[in-house]
Write a structure and sequence with these properties.
Strands 1, 5, 6, 7 and 8 form a 5-stranded mixed sheet that branches. This protein has a two-stranded antiparallel sheet with strand order 2-9. It contains 16 helices and 9 strands. The protein folds into 2 domains: 212 residues, Hypothetical protein, domain 2 (Endonuclease III, domain 1); 123 residues, Nucleoside Triphosphate Pyrophosphohydrolase. By secondary structure, the chain is an alpha+beta fold. Helix 9 crosses helix 11. The protein starts with a helix and ends with a helix. It is elongated and about 75 Å long. Its cofactor is [4Fe-4S] cluster. Keywords: 4Fe-4S, DNA damage, DNA repair, Glycosidase, Hydrolase, Iron, Iron-sulfur, Metal-binding. GO terms for molecular function: 4 iron, 4 sulfur cluster binding; 8-oxo-7,8-dihydroguanine DNA N-glycosylase activity; adenine/guanine mispair binding; metal ion binding; oxidized purine DNA binding; purine-specific mismatch base pair DNA N-glycosylase activity. InterPro entries: A/G_AdeGlyc_MutY, DNA_glycosylase, Endonuclease3_FeS-loop_motif, Endouclease-III_FeS-bd_BS, HhH-GPD_domain, HhH_base_excis_C, HhH_motif, MIG/MutY.
Length: 348
């Protein structure tokens, strides 16, 4: 039996029951695939259910405000996905009459849709025989065929895509693609793969050579950058605060935050109050307290944010204020959401 047939046989007995697998609606398949980029199924599932309830069709998503989309996305991370999702929904609804492109090449033209997502939609919804290649697929193929080419290298990306395309079952490409992804996620796992009960163990090169733990190979990671964030949390006499939208092309674009003072290294209270940004924001006398007594390190893919939340009580601030009830309605990064949860619970 071929590798593709063995994987499909395994899948039909072991597949996860997921809502986006009960349909060939490209809107729902697209939504699920965008959400599951860099995200585990168990984390993405509740978001998929929230989104499909709030936006049952691509027209509903297109009509939504970006802030509403970002608020529902809050906690899922990689917020550019949400902004691209909203942009593409508007494009499909307004320019394509709500009908998604029906081929891999056309799907690739949509903003936020790369090789993996286009392959998934084209194969699952339209039976086009294009192979998906994600982390799970890299792992299964590199182990099964014993390939040590780094999966995050230009050569590796090309090599594995070509290999995946030769393995795919052209008669049922959507089922096969879901089979190999589920097999990688549930059986050929990164740690402790279930080799002793594996249906393809007899022909797995990594198992024969005892190299399962070494595969797949990744080139050395990008150096992690450390940044020092000091959030200034104003609390005025009439219990107002300041929340501002993050602009520019950096992290969390379009989300809201307390005024941020970023430093080159960790600073104390004396350094804080002498900073030009602090003096400008708080023209009158203040009382300051550091909310988090222990260091908060918020880890992103290529940077670690060493974060302090400074609660600053004052009579006046130089920026427009907002009531705390409005703060809770704004889309914020998970780092600030966690602070708000602790601060508001402590304050209530």
């Amino acid at each position: 039996m071929s590798l593709s047939k063995q994987l499909i046989h395994w899948y039909l007995q072991n597949k996860r029951e997921l809502p986006w697998r009960k349909t060939k609606d490209p809107y729902r398949v697209w939504l699920s695939e965008i959400m599951l980029q860099q995200t585990r199924v168990v984390q993405g599932l509740p978001y998929f259910l929230k989104f499909t309830e709030a936006f049952p069709t691509v027209f509903d998503l297109a009509k939504a405000e970006e802030s509403e989309v970002l608020k529902l996305w809050q906690g899922l991370g990689y917020y550019s996905r949400a902004r691209n999702l909203h942009f593409t929904a508007k494009y499909v609804a307004e320019e394509l009459g709500g009908i998604f492109p029906k081929s891999y090449k056309e799907l690739l033209q949509l903003k936020g849709v790369g090789d993996y997502t286009a392959s998934a939609i084209a194969s699952i919804c339209y039976d086009e025989p294009v192979a998906v290649v994600d982390g799970n697929v890299y792992r299964v193929l590199s182990r099964y065929f014993g390939i040590a080419t780094p999966i995050n290298s230009t050569k590796g990306i090309k090599e594995f895509k070509e290999l995946a395309q030769t393995v795919i079952d052209a008669s049922q490409p959507g089922v096969y693609n879901q089979a190999i992804m589920d097999f990688g996620a549930l059986h050929c796992k990164p740690q402790n793969p279930l080799c002793s009960e594996c249906p393809i163990a007899n022909s797995c090169v990594a198992l024969v050579k005892n190299s399962t733990k070494e595969l797949p190979v990744k080139e050395k990671k990008i150096k992690i950058k450390k940044r020092y964030f000091n959030y200034l949390v104003p609390v005025t006499n009439d219990n107002q605060t300041v929340l501002e939208e993050r602009t520019g092309k950096g992290i969390w674009q379009g989300l809201y935050q307390f005024p941020l003072l970023e430093a080159k290294n960790e600073i104390d209270e004396n350094e804080l109050i002498q900073h030009e940004q602090f003096i400008k924001l708080f023209p009158e006398e203040t009382t300051i307290s550091l909310f988090n007594k222990e260091e908060i390190i918020h880890k992103l893919s290529h940077q670690h944010l060493v974060t302090k939340f400074w609660v600053v009580k004052t009579t006046n601030v130089s920026e427009n204020t907002m009531s705390w009830s409005k703060v809770k309605e704004q889309p914020v990064p998970v780092l600030i959401d966690k602070f708000l949860e602790e601060y508001l619970n402590e304050d209530s």
